Amino acid sequence: MDRQRLVIVSVVLILVVASGAAITLAATESVSPVPAATPILPETNTEPACPAVVSNPGAGTSADTDVDFEPRIVEAFPNPTTEHNVGEYVVLETPPDTELENWTVTDGHTSASIPNETVSGRVALSTDTEATDELTDYPVHELEGSLRLAVDGDDLELRNGSTTVDTVSYERAPLEERWHRDADEFDTATTQTPADGDWHPRDATCVPISSGDADEATPFVLPDEPELPRETIREAEDRLSVAGYTLTSEEIAEDLVDAADRGVDVSVLLEASPVGGTEETTEPVLETLEDGDVEVRAIGGEGSRYRFHHPKYAVADEQVLVTSENWAPAGVGGESSRGWGVLLEDETLAADLEAVFDADFEGWDTVPGSEYREDTSFVDDEGGEEETPGSYPSEYGPEPTAIEAVELLVAPDNAESRVEELLADADEEILVKQASIAADASVLEETIDAAHRGVDVQILLDSTWYHEDDNRALADELEEYADDEGLSLEVGLVEETDRFEKIHAKGVVIDREVAIVGSANWNENAFENNREVLLALSGEEIATYYADVFEDDWDGDEDRWELPFELSLTVVVALAIAAIIGRRYIRFGDPGVE
């Protein structure tokens, strides 16, 4: 509602009250029914979908048991980022004290002999052990021969003398990715049909879902609450690990430098190649951090473990802060985006997320911030998504809120399957808030399946110019489908509002019992290729917090009006005088007045 209309409404209200007319004041609030008891997050299989990490590379998983099995090929690395693929290797898993005399590996065209040694567990086999030592932690043994692993796919056989013991098959090898034998073909060697497997980036993590013990969290939204992320940084005492897609806020940079000055161990990890290039506003921030002795690294480049390093989180001592927003004025700075965030204190989750950070930060595909700054061509971000700073009212403050359970989800390790599970458990309602959604996203398919079960679904999307056409087309398609199928599924694009510039949240509320907050956009790339971090929070109070924000954003400004500050005192005084003068004539709640 514009300012002129507010003034008119206020004046009319004063005149009506002062005249002593009968007034009916009614306050209504729409409250959705909630169950008598809130369940915690449904149980899930916490094992990750990716291949298991072996804590002791020299001892295979089966070699530590009494299981009798034949040696087998469990891993292959045909396409490293080395000249002529020098250092390529295969990994055998063997029983304890296996003698490899007369064993060979062949692709059907050439063969290489395995050295006559006694081994246990997992060992890497290579024709160039020095190069391979740089690529794996497994013990490396030198093959004798000219075996080459084909990048465009190959069939490999493991032979004991003239007897074929195991066969595996892989298709075209992505750059810097390792082939891992499928779990259901892991316990036995195969000789008839080659064992299949999946590709996983070299040194990518494979962590299970982590559950915390926190019974309280502080939800917040942006642009309403830009101070909470800064306060979290300012209050850190021992360690501070900040992960993001971009960092362009000088204020955040200065807070990080201040933390380092007071003795906090501060580390920052950023995406090296964001879409459209690295914004020029990043360069002075990197300089500030470098001058302030804050350790910064950028992750990315050829064959990188993740398509994009896209999370937005901080670990501050035992606190975990997860948001949907970049470390930018338009994001956590509160100058533009509608985002969701949450802060909680939990020793287990903080340690587990710190382990993820450390694995990403110390990876082979990261470079120091100073080197990144020197080698990067920064681009003018004029006309970009974050060019318009604004000032917005603070309508939703942070609220310490009871929670029943919390899970740490990370992509690509485990997030997609868990979000799908939570959507599949929906009984009554799903609220989805996203900047945009890919039509073929698996989480969207799960949401539509829920609508077929009778779940009420509302999806709210961004309407800024770079999203509007695609989002409008998706909304039309989904609503037409919902009409044809008789589904309770609505899709809306946020209307023009004076409370934020655009939707950047990536949030879900399920049955007003579970809220999912984090960085993952609803598309295949986010869940399957990107590094993303999310929290799944169970509890009526915290889910209702985000649901209330969702509903207000869905409704837009059409039913909202606020009294201009300069008129508010006048109206209050006028109402008080009118009440004194005309209290004999004013009746509240008169059923005859509509």
TrEMBL record:
<keyword id="KW-0442">Lipid degradation</keyword>
<keyword id="KW-0378">Hydrolase</keyword>
<feature type="region of interest" description="Disordered">
    <location>
        <begin position="366"/>
        <end position="397"/>
    </location>
</feature>
<dbReference type="Pfam" id="PF13091">
    <property type="entry name" value="PLDc_2"/>
</dbReference>
<protein>
    <submittedName>
        <fullName>Phosphatidylserine/phosphatidylglycerophosphate/cardiolipin synthase</fullName>
    </submittedName>
</protein>
<dbReference type="GO" id="GO:0016891">
    <property type="term" value="F:RNA endonuclease activity producing 5'-phosphomonoesters, hydrolytic mechanism"/>
</dbReference>
<dbReference type="GO" id="GO:0016042">
    <property type="term" value="P:lipid catabolic process"/>
</dbReference>
<dbReference type="InterPro" id="IPR001736">
    <property type="entry name" value="PLipase_D/transphosphatidylase"/>
</dbReference>
<feature type="compositionally biased region" description="Acidic residues">
    <location>
        <begin position="377"/>
        <end position="388"/>
    </location>
</feature>
<dbReference type="InterPro" id="IPR051406">
    <property type="entry name" value="PLD_domain"/>
</dbReference>
<dbReference type="InterPro" id="IPR025202">
    <property type="entry name" value="PLD-like_dom"/>
</dbReference>
<feature type="domain" description="PLD phosphodiesterase">
    <location>
        <begin position="499"/>
        <end position="526"/>
    </location>
</feature>
<keyword id="KW-0443">Lipid metabolism</keyword>
